[in-house]
Structures are given as structure tokens and as C-alpha cells.
Specification:
By secondary structure, this protein is mainly alpha-helical. It folds into three domains: 48 residues; 382 residues, no CATH class; 123 residues, D-Maltodextrin-Binding Protein, domain 2. It is 63% helix and 6% strand. Strands 2-1-3-5-4 form a five-stranded mixed sheet, with helices on both faces. The longest helix is centred in the first third of the chain and has 36 residues. The N and C termini lie far apart (109 Å).
Length: 614
């Protein structure tokens, strides 16, 4: 017997239309809520997890790129003739980062533009990751993927400066997610084009992305050949077309924003220069012993092993998206380890060159945790527990952020094994334990995996004497990425944005500006001095002292002006006496203030190196 209400609904067209309209409205509302949540996720993570919005500079390299964001024409005018031979202006070729960063600077200003750029980079990584995990496991898994990325100290630190890794890690994350995206034929074409465009942006952000992009394309084609051979040539054409279109658009944008159309030749010239034996000897450690003290490098191989034990079965039985993401992670990790330890590229020993590897690592970690969470994701009452647990892990760390140095030889290996064994246990639980036990066990294992990865990442590099053949001891402060203060770094950036207006633009080509500052004030002064190539054209004796070596540098670069920077008050007279042989004159002076940071700036003209007027 059929109930009257159901019978009425079936016999009434008006009722059918009303019900369908309600369904459409409900679907549209839920979709709108999801879209808003994804768009707001970087802001939610920023306030909830207290992400450090800016990292302190440890090398001049980010400031060199900041200079091209602020005043690229002035940088070329001052330094092209002097530094072109040593490819010191190679940062100008990194248009995949510079073009969006300068556009946001022009639209919003220095500091707001900086934050808008990071917001865009975060969405580039989080958006495709959310959609991929949602299609594979559901909305809660999409949120899980977003939390993995937005709570990763490596990614947060990469976003924290004007170096190109901030763009690379986002582009590579988004590209892998796009290429892994399941869907119909038309959707596949759109996602492949988006993935190809993001890979191209990564390449033109920094050449260290080339091996990662190459591995991604090889893995993609290999999977497509085995799973959808007839679509391979079409995919190749779409990827190539996307690369050509994006490169062309970047060329036009580079001409409009940076003043040079051809960024490919300078990029190639820089690669050739950095490949010289003298450059390799200067930049690349000749042994591997330094790695025994750097625990965050254990995370990528640990995630690879976790993926293997989680999806360890016949290759044909692994779903296509899971297989592709895992193979990309395996290939990228192998590529960087081979380049570092069997080749001559410092892909791992410098943290801002290794950070792009975390795009595939985070995506693989998210898929692995989602697979372990199946007992939770399949139950309406617990499906939002996995992303909630992933939020709790960094919050617990922020309560007591005191992870000690570990080192590979002791506790760190044990922590990495915990991560891998937790995934093995999760796979066993999912098929052998009763439902309630699987639910409880899955929750505990999620915490174990996320906690182990976080501990390995934030553990400080163990103090050690420089090993023979070790050339880089530049180490990151990943421990402060969650809950750390960025006030001093932000104040230094604000001051840096005011310095170009104080200095003024070069009145002629080759009007070199040198900086003069105290190395003891490195942290406070570097973001400002770095705008004017502080690593190359700087006087590094505390002003007003000037030794014979610095006089040789003055005679070599023949600067028209010297910018004196100090965090303490400095009278003009001692500086003029030290530079007296160069016929100095004070052009202007000021005190730049931001928060608690005060930088005293003195611009001095050197008449000896000024051009003679008829």
C-alpha cells in the first residue's frame, strides 16, 4: 500500500518541480559554502594555527628579488654593467614569481602586495588539492588535504620570503593535483592544461624546478600509457600548448612589468655560469656527512615509505590518482637525492632549494592519511574527525614548541619508523579489526603520522663542527613557523619598501650604489641592504671604520653613492672623514621606523667617481 503523501507527490507535476528546485537550491548552497571555505582556508589557518606570515632573511637572495619587485629598472641601471658577467642579476629571469609579485605590489603596495601574493600562492596549492581529495574521498578529506599543506612548516617558511621557492612549492603542488584529477574527457583536458601551465610557471620561477617538473611529466605519461594509451598524444599536445601559451604571456608581462621581454636567455646563461667547476666548488658540499644532522630531510623518504606500505599491492590494483601522486613523490625525492649526493647540485643542503620538494610530499602525505582514515571517513558521525585531528597536532606543538635536536643516528630514525609503521598498522586495521576498533585506531594513527612528520620537520639542526668539504651551514628555523613571531621581519620589510624612495633612482646607466653597514646588525639590516646587492657590493666593516680591503672594493666598483645603514645613531662627520679621499658629500639622511626597529640611513655622494660634466 502506498502512502497518500507519496502518491500525491508522484501524481503532481508541481510538487515534483518544487522538490527538484529545493534540491538544486540545497546543492547550490552547499557548493557555495564549500567554495567560500576553500577561499577562506588560508586566512582561517593563519589565525587558528598562528602561522608565521614572514620569515627572517638569512641570506641576501630574497632581498635581491624584492628589489626587482619594487624597482626593476633601477636595479638594471645601477648594476647590469658591473654584475652581468657573473650572472648576479639572474633573479630577474625568475618571472614565474616576479610577475605576480610585482603586479600585486603595483596594485596594493609593498606590504599588502606581499600578503596578497602569499594568499594567491596558498590558494594555488590548496584549491586543486581540496578538489582532488574531495573527489577521491569526500569533502572532509578535501579539508584534510588543505590542513596538511597549511600546517606544514616547510611550506609556511617558503611562503615567508621573496625567494622563488614560495612560488615553486605552490605551483608544483597545484600541478600534481591537477594532473591527478579524475573526471570526464572535457574535464581532463582542462585539468591537464591547468597542470601544464602551473608546471611552466614553476620552471620560470627557478631552474631547480626543472628536475621536479621533468619527473612529474615522465610519471604522468607513464601512467597514462599504461591506463589510457589513446589519450597520451592529446595530453602531450595540451601540455605543450599550455607551456607555450604561459611562456608567451609571461614574456609580455615581463616586458611590461620588469622591462625585459627575453627572460629565457638570461636564465640559460645563469645556468651555464652556475654549472662551472668554480661555481660548483663554491656552492656544493663534496661530502654527505652534513646530512646526518638535518632531520627534516628524513620526512620525504619517510612519506614515500608510508605511501608504499599503505598502497602496497599490485600496481594495477592501485587507483590511478593514488598511483600517479605516489610515483611523482618517489621520483622527485630520488631526483633531488641523486642530484645532491651523486651529482653537483645543492638541491638538499640549502633549505630554500629543497622546499619545492614538499609539494609532492604534502600531497602524498594527505592521500596516505586519507586512505588510513577510511574507517572514519565512511561514518557520518566521524567523517570530520581526521581534519580536526590534523589541526589539533600543530596546536599541541604550539603549546610546547621545544623539540630538541635529534640527529639521524638516534631518535630521528625511530620517529621516522613510527610514521611508517603507523601507516602499516592503519592498513591492517582497516581490513582486520572490528569497525569500532578501526575507528579508534585510525584516529590514533593519524595523530602518530602527523605528529612524527611535524617533529622531524621542526627539530633543530644538531650543532656540529663543519665537516670536511661542507660549504653550507645555512639552516632554517622551521620550529617558529607555527606560532612564531614575525614582527621584526615585517618591520624590516616595511623599512625596505621605503628605502628606494629615499635613495632615488639612478640618473644614468652604471651609477653604482654600495651599502655600508655593520655585520653584527645583519638580521635587521640585511633586508634593506640586500636591495642593493649586499652580498656583492657592500662594505662590511662597522661604519665609520674603513680598512684597506674595503678601499680596494670602492676603487673596484667606483660607486657614485654609498648608502650607510645602522640601527644606532651615527654622525655624518666620521663617515665623511673616512671617505675623504673620495670627495664625499651628504646627499640626505633620515631615520626609518617600523615598530621597534629603527634604521638610520645616510646617503653619501662620492665626487671622485661622479662623471665629469663639460
Amino acid at each position: 500500500m502506498i502512502s497518500p503523501s507519496i502518491a500525491t507527490a508522484r501524481s503532481s507535476p508541481a510538487m515534483t518541480v518544487e522538490v527538484a528546485g529545493t534540491t538544486r537550491r540545497a546543492w547550490s548552497l552547499s557548493t557555495a559554502v564549500e567554495v567560500v571555505a576553500v577561499l577562506a582556508s588560508p586566512l582561517l589557518a593563519f589565525y587558528l594555527l598562528r602561522l608565521r606570515p614572514m620569515a627572517p632573511y638569512r641570506v641576501p637572495d630574497p632581498a635581491l628579488m624584492t628589489a626587482f619587485i619594487f624597482h626593476p629598472a633601477d636595479v638594471f641601471a645601477r648594476y647590469q654593467a658591473t654584475l652581468q658577467a657573473t650572472q648576479r642579476l639572474r633573479e630577474a629571469g625568475r618571472v614565474g614569481f616576479l610577475v605576480p609579485a610585482r603586479l600585486n605590489y603595483l596594485l596594493f603596495g609593498a606590504l599588502p602586495g606581499y600578503f596578497v601574493t602569499r594568499y594567491v600562492f596558498a590558494l594555488v596549492a590548496v584549491g586543486p588539492t581540496y578538489i582532488l581529495l574531495r573527489r577521491l574521498y569526500g569533502p572532509s578529506a578535501g579539508a584534510l588535504g588543505a590542513v596538511v599543506i597549511l600546517s606544514c612548516p616547510v611550506v609556511i617558511t617558503a611562503w615567508g620570503s621573496d625567494f622563488a621557492d614560495s612560488a615553486m612549492v605552490s605551483y608544483l603542488t597545484g600541478a600534481v593535483a591537477c594532473l591527478a584529477m579524475p573526471g570526464g574527457e572535457r574535464q581532463r583536458t582542462v585539468w591537464v592544461a591547468a597542470g601544464g601551465g602551473l608546471l611552466t610557471m614553476a620552471v620560470w620561477s627557478h631552474l631547480d624546478a626543472v628536475p621536479l617538473v621533468g619527473v612529474t611529466i615522465i610519471c604522468y605519461l607513464a601512467v597514462r600509457i599504461t591506463r589510457a594509451r589513446r589519450e597520451v598524444m592529446k595530453d602531450v599536445a595540451v601540455l605543450a600548448g599550455a607551456a607555450i601559451v604561459v611562456t608567451g604571456l609571461l614574456s609580455v608581462a615581463s616586458e611590461l612589468e620588469l622591462g625585459h621581454f627575453d627572460f629565457i636567455r638570461p636564465t640559460w646563461d645563469a645556468y651555464r655560469y652556475l654549472s662551472l667547476p668554480s661555481s660548483v666548488q663554491r656552492d656544493h658540499s663534496s661530502n654527505w656527512h652534513w646530512a646526518l644532522y638535518v632531520t627534516y630531510l628524513l620526512v620525504p623518504p619517510a612519506i614515500v615509505l608510508a605511501w608504499v606500505v599503505t598502497f602496497g599491492r599490485r600496481i594495477r590494483a592501485i587507483p590511478t590518482a593514488h598511483l600517479f601522486v605516489g610515483l611523482v613523490c618517489v621520483g622527485q625525492v630520488l631526483a633531488f637525492f641523486v642530484l645532491q649526493f651523486a651529482g653537483n647540485v645543492q638541491t638538499l643542503e640549502i633549505f630554500y632549494l629543497s622546499s619545492p620538494l614538499w609539494g609532492a610530499v604534502c600531497l602524498t602525505e594527505a592521500i596516505t592519511i586519507a586512505e588510513l582514515s577510511r574507517p572514519l571517513l565512511s561514518r557520518p558521525a566521524t567523517r570530520w574527525l581526521p581534519p580536526a585531528l590534523l589541526v589539533v597536532v600543530p596546536l599541541i606543538y604550539e603549546i610546547w614548541p621545544h623539540v630538541p635536536p635529534l640527529g639521524w643516528r638516534t631518535v630521528a630514525v625511530a620517529v621516522a619508523l613510527v610514521l611508517v609503521l603507523a601507516c602499516a598498522a592503519g592498513r591492517w586495521l582497516a581490513v582486520r579489526v572490528a569497525t569500532l576498533g578501526a575507528v579508534v585506531g585510525s584516529g590514533l594513527l593519524i595523530v602518530a603520522v602527523a605528529g612524527a612528520a611535524l617533529v622531524l620537520t621542526v627539530a633543530p639542526v644538531s650543532a656540529h663542527a663543519r665537516t670536511r668539504g661542507e660549504v653550507n651551514q645555512l639552516r632554517p628555523n622551521y620550529a617558529a613557523a607555527l606560532g612564531g613571531s614575525a614582527a621584526e621581519a615585517i618591520h624590516a620589510y616595511q623599512i625596505s619598501s621605503e628605502v628606494p624612495a629615499f635613495v632615488g633612482r639612478a640618473s644614468r646607466q652604471g651609477e653604482v650604489l654600495m651599502t655600508w653597514w655593520d655585520p653584527k646588525q645583519y638580521a635587521a639590516i640585511l633586508p634593506t641592504a640586500g636591495l642593493y646587492h649586499a652580498g656583492r657590493t657592500a662594505l662590511l666593516t662597522p661604519p665609520p671604520a674603513l680598512n684597506s680591503f674595503e678601499r680596494i672594493r670602492l676603487n673596484r666598483f667606483r660607486p657614485a653613492e654609498v648608502l650607510v645603514l645602522t640601527t644606532r645613531s651615527l654622525a655624518s662627520a666620521p663617515v665623511l672623514r673616512a671617505l675623504s679621499v673620495y670627495r664625499p658629500a651628504v646627499v640626505r639622511r633620515t631615520v626609518l621606523r617600523a615598530g621597534a626597529l629603527h634604521v638610520h640611513a645616510l646617503l653619501v655622494s662620492l665626487g671622485r667617481f661622479q662623471p665629469r660634466h663639460p
